[in-house]
Design goal:
Shape: globular
Strand order of the largest sheet: 8-9-7-10-13-12-11
Helix content: 25-40%
Order of helices and strands: EHEHHEHEHEHEHEHEHEEHEEEH
CATH architecture of the largest domain: 2-Layer Sandwich
CATH superfamily of the largest domain: Dihydrodipicolinate Reductase, domain 2
Strand content: 15-25%
CATH topology of the largest domain: Dihydrodipicolinate Reductase, domain 2
């Protein structure tokens, strides 16, 4: 059994991790850390876990974690992870971090987009970007994973085949993405109150969202050149989901069917990527509650432009499910163990 600890267990991503790990046949949860709920059972905070996970939340004790756990998931806010993870790493633990603190290859890019100094930049050389479909071989031997964000997972996997194969003008990429409200976390903010977000659609951080840099990093690696793109996130009145509509100008004459065939070949054998046949497109409820990435493609021959629709569940493939997928790869398990179920749909 893999002995697991979860830091930040009572946030939305942390709770989803606990829910998934509680049903994972190769996992034993040894420690749940929550600064705000010390001494309370996980099932008292989230009653749907009653009888499934009744573990009492505690403060972080690195020495105890090193003694009791094989791997620790850190579902902490950006900035907090980089202060905690060095001690966990030095104690010999494997760490899967759900924040943005260890997703970058270049510390200057991190510091520019996050607006703060990275206190442990040397660990960026140790960390592996945990997008399983693109970095599986590196993940196998990693001790520190920077688990990708929800917008980035949806956008990168949506555009990767086109960029890798040189089908598009990389300077023309535009990504228009929507997120459910859980993507903002469990903290209180007036924009996320029911009366503010219901029956409303809001763009935010236009041209400045930090996930832009993460998408550029990974697509740039695929293209073997620097990429700058336009990314606009929106908040939509639903609880969970990411829905990205991506545009780019084609450099080659291809039909929708030909581009679909490219995608199916690129993702051949990938358990969690579902490429739709020509004429069909994904919807957010096709992936809600699952670890799947659903992708549909349309070529507009009039404009010689390709439009890619990609959808994921922000808390599952965009956070907790992908983190468990990373753990499975790191420990040599079946990659789909614990996360193979179909979504909610309704």
């Amino acid at each position: 059994m893999i002995k697991v600890g979860v830091l930040g267990a009572t946030g939305y991503a942390g709770e989803e991790l606990v829910r998934i790990l509680s049903g994972h046949k190769e996992v034993e949860i040894k420690m749940l850390v929550s600064h705000s709920y010390v001494g309370q059972k996980m099932s008292d905070i989230y009653p749907h876990l009653r009888g499934i996970c009744d573990i009492v939340c505690e403060d972080l004790d690195v020495e105890k974690a090193a003694k009791e756990c094989d791997v620790v998931f850190t579902a902490l806010p950006h900035g907090a992870s980089k202060e905690v993870i060095p001690a966990l790493f030095e104690a010999g633990l494997r760490v899967i971090d759900l924040s943005g603190d260890f997703r970058y290859n270049d510390v200057e890019v991190y510091e520019k987009w996050y607006g703060e100094k990275h206190s442990n930049p040397e660990l960026l050389d140790e960390s592996v970007y945990g997008l399983c479909e693109l970095h599986r071989d590196e993940i196998k031997n990693a001790r520190l994973i920077g688990n990708p964000g929800c917008y980035t997972t949806c956008s990168i996997l949506g555009m990767a085949p086109l960029v890798k194969n040189g089908y598009i003008d990389n300077s023309s990429i535009i990504i228009d993405a929507k997120s459910g409200v859980t993507g903002a976390g469990r903290g209180l903010h007036i924009n996320y109150h029911f009366c503010e977000c219901t029956e409303n659609l809001m763009a935010y951080k236009v041209g400045t969202h930090r996930h832009t840099s993460e998408i550029e990093q990974e697509l740039g690696l695929l293209a073997n050149e620097e990429i700058a793109l336009s990314f606009t996130p929106h908040l939509v009145p639903m609880k969970r989901g990411i829905f990205a509509t991506c545009y780019a100008n084609l450099k080659v004459d291809k039909t929708t069917q030909e581009v679909v065939e490219l995608y199916k070949e690129f993702y051949k054998g990938e358990r969690f990527v579902r490429v739709y046949d020509a004429g069909k497109l994904p919807e957010s409820n096709h992936v809600s509650g699952s670890n799947f990435v659903d992708i549909g493609v349309v070529v507009d021959p009039r404009l010689k432009r390709v439009i890619v629709i990609s959808a994921i569940d922000n808390l599952f493939k965009g956070a907790a499910g992908q983190a468990v997928q990373n753990m499975n790869i790191m420990f040599g398990l079946n990659e789909a163990e614990g996360i193979a179920q179909a979504g909610f749909y309704m």
